Task: inverse folding
């Protein structure tokens, strides 16, 4: 089949509803939860919006706003330069990553049962290999998405889940991150939680291993995804293209998946 035919077929299948567009994005607003760090570290501001004009004397015919936010707010993309392990890689910033690397097949690993039992659940390399036994080997250039149903925790309190000993949320065992980065050559991983490491990962050895390993390997992260329950285990395509911020370490984005309806 020629490339022109494939693209025409894609458009036709979207028009006739056999391919659906699934929005994997949280709404972005003042109530969007932001990751909390220990107070010795600088915090990231959440989202705020202030009006420039709204059909008034400041601009009679138009409405627009100024937005202020940390790069890593809401549904967002982590570039390799975000972590010290990726700081010297080539093409590690938002403006230098080749755009083709924003699009890839989705491998959705459903750990909702495990997460319901343990908020601190970590995906292991062995569990990924068991998933591959059922669904096939993760192809190079895939987005691996960890389905936890965590995004169904709609209040910031339940979503961030901070207790006396810090936040609790699921993530990846470091061996799993290493396996995905180096033995499966993924584009990156996506999660429903506020960041791509587990809530308690600041206490791991090394701290925040998924960030360190993935970004050190030039891989990406997607945080605060939702609607992963609308995707098949395989067969969807994810489009995750961040803003082209010069020297940017990450940005909010609209993550879309094309999936069989
Ligand atoms: Mn981030």
Result:
């Amino acid at each position: 089949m020629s490339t022109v035919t494939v693209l025409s077929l894609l458009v036709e299948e979207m028009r006739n509803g056999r391919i659906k567009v699934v929005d994997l994005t949280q709404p972005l607003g003042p109530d969007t939860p932001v990751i909390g760090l220990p107070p010795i570290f600088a915090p990231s501001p959440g989202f705020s919006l202030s009006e420039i004009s709204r059909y008034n004397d400041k601009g009679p015919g138009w409405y627009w706003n100024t937005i202020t936010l940390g790069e890593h707010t809401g549904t967002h993309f982590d570039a390799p330069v975000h972590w010290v392990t990726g700081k010297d890689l080539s093409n590690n910033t938002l403006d230098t990553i080749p755009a083709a690397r924003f699009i890839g097949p989705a491998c959705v690993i459903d750990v909702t049962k495990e997460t319901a039992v343990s908020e601190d659940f970590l995906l292991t390399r062995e569990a990924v290999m068991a998933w591959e036994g059922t669904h096939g080997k993760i192809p190079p250039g895939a987005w691996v998405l960890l389905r936890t149903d965590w995004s169904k925790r709609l209040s910031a309190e339940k979503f961030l889940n901070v207790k006396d000993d810090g936040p609790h949320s699921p993530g990846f065992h470091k061996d799993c991150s290493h396996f995905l980065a180096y033995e499966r050559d993924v584009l990156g991983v996506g999660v429903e939680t506020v960041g791509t490491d587990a809530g308690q990962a600041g206490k791991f050895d090394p701290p925040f291993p998924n960030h360190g390993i993935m970004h050190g390997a030039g891989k990406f992260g997607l945080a605060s995804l939702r609607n992963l329950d609308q995707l098949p285990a395989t067969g969807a395509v994810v489009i995750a293209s961040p803003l082209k911020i010069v020297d940017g370490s990450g940005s909010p984005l609209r993550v879309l998946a094309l999936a069989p309806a």
User: Anything to note?
Assistant: Helices lie at 3-15, 112-117, 125-135, 156-160, 174-183, 209-216.
